[in-house]
Each structure stands twice: as structure tokens, then as C-alpha cells.
Amino acid sequence: GGKTYVFMGWSENPSGKTSPSPAEPVVTSVDSQLFSGKVSDDAVLYACYERFSYMSNMVTVEYGNARFQVSKYETTQEVWDYVYEWIQQNDGRKQRYSHIPANPSLFKRDPAITNGRLEDVRKRPVERVAWPEACSFCNALSKMEGLQPDHYDGTYSANVNLVCFDAGTIWLKGIKSRCSKTEDAGYRIPLVNEWKIAACGGNYKPDGSSLFKYSGSDDIDEVGWNRGDDYSNGGNAREMTHQVGLLAPNGYGLYDMTGNVIEWRMETDEVYVDIDNMNARSYKNFKYALGGGWDTSSTRSELSSCTHSFTSGAAWWSPNVGFRVFRSLP
Question: pLDDT per residue over 138-195, tens digit each?
């Protein structure tokens, strides 16, 4: 037998067979003997990269003047690992994405048992990801798939796709999004209105508010892993994240919008908290995340009150925070 490689994606595997359900994350073992002739380890890996596509995981949403794509699932540890490996193979001395860490998640071991089945820890959402790292990851995923990276720092230039975000400064001056409405627009974290439209799932009351209290249901346990209201019994999450896609989706077919991990959004607020002393010490750049997580109460997970703000340093992360990728459309 030849060597076995692990290929993580949603498209055809090198044997030519499609996965049973292409829309769901799958892992396919790739044996080097499947490739004719004498090939190097790198050749096999690059063949796998060429077959990887996140696009089949995206759902098109159209509401009013808004038109965009959003991932069915929160970004998983499996996908993070795969993009990280691509960075190691392709970034080289350019160091464009060198600051993106290996899987930073807390919940990488000890899979939970849900409905009598052992969960796949690789399909848990990646968490403990800082806001700048989520933006850079989206750029790396875009480059990997031949799309135009969307996030850039405050000094936009023609070389925006080469920008390496420095977490120590980006937290203060922020990262921008071009939101390019082109065929090759890359992945990015969402604008707040996009996230809210996606979370409503196409279900609205006459006044324009969400038909449901949570994303897809009035019962949070049906659609989101949460801590409950009293923080005493751990809720249905049992004090951990869970494999994505196990609970019911919303009307757009999106999973875990109000449970599992809360999700970074693009917009920030730059304010001086002491208006009588407007210096660097009083400057704050608020970052926001949306939704609910395994460590979020059911009340704070409601769509009407699920915005969470953070003012800590650039490297701030939490095991309750992850992200989901969006993409602009022409």
C-alpha cells in the first residue's frame, strides 16, 4: 500500500466518486496509488488541493436589495486544519498568512455523544479565533480557491491580496472589507445586516422582525447548543461545542445560527471612552459577534438581543466565539 493522505472537503474525491452528501463536510482518505506513475508526496497533496471547494457549502440569500452567499455551517476545525496545511505548503517565504495559528480550539478532544451517536470532533466549530485571524483565514481560503481576497487593512492598495494582518495594530485601526460584487469575490466575515437576514431564514412578521425568537424556532434547543437561562445545568450544550449541523436548520438551511459558537461580524465602532481626555489610552475599538454559543444563555441568544461587544486586545479570543464565512455576489 501507498501512503494515505487525509483530504478534507466537500467535492469529488480523487477516485472520481462523489461523497454521499456533498453539502456536508466529509473526510476522504486518498491513497497515493490512486495516482498513476511515480509521484511525490507534494504532488498528491496538490492534487487534493485542486479538488477542494468550499463553494458547494454556500447558500445564496436574496432579500430586498441584499444578495450574498453564506456558509451552511460555522467554520469547522476540519476546514481550519486544511487551510492551515495549505498555508504551510504554499506561503513559503512570503509570510502572507504566517500568523494564522494551528487549530486554536479548546474542544479538540473528548467527543460528545448525541442521540446515541459519537460526534466527529473535527466537525466541531473552530473557536478561540481572534477577529483579525478570522479575517486573514477568509483571505487564505479565498487564495486557495482562486478567488480575490476581500479583507484588507486601512492602507488599501493594488496589492491588497498580499496584506498580512498584524494583530497588534489591526485591532486598533481595523480591517476593511471591499464587499466586491464580482464573480471572483472572496470569502469574508459578514456585515451585520447580512448576518441578521441570514439568521431570520426568510421568516418575518408583518413588521419586518423575525418570525421566530431564535434562528428557525421559538425553542432554542431545537436549533442551537446553549447554556440555558439559569447557567446552572449547562443547557443542552453540556458545557462544550458540538458537531455542526446536528440540530434543525433555519428557513435558508443554515445551521447553528443561534447556538454552538457566537460569530464575528465585520463592522467595528471606534470611540474615545473619555471625551475630556481623547488620547490613545481612552481610545477603544469595539469588535462584535452575533448569535449564541454553548456558553450563552438562551435569553442572550435571542435574535433581538444577540449582539455581543468586546474591547479587549487584538489577541482576544474565547472558546465561545468562532465565525462563519460569507461572500458577496454580483
Answer: 988 998 888 888 876 544 333 333 333 443 334 334 456 677 788 888 999 998 999 9
Tell me the pLDDT tens digit for each residue of 21-73: 333 333 333 332 332 333 333 333 333 444 457 888 899 999 988 899 999 99
Interhelix angle 131-144/77-90, rounded to 10 degrees, is: 70
Instruction: Tell whether the torsion through CA atoms of 101, 107, 111 and 114 is positive or negative.
Output: negative
Residue 263: strand pairing partners: 290, 322
| Most distant CA pair in the chain, distance | 72
Q: How far apart are CA 191 and CA 265, in angstroms?
A: 6
Cβ proximity of 105 and 121 under 8 Å = no
Gap between the Cα atoms of 175 and 268, Å rounded: 9
Q: Which residue in 219, 268, 267, 261 sits closest to 241, CA to CA? A: 261
The enclosing H or E element of 262 equals strand 262-264
- Joined together, the cell numbers standing for residue 44 give 498528491
Where does residue 206 rank: exposed (0-12), middle (13-18), buried (19+ CB within 10 A)? Answer: exposed
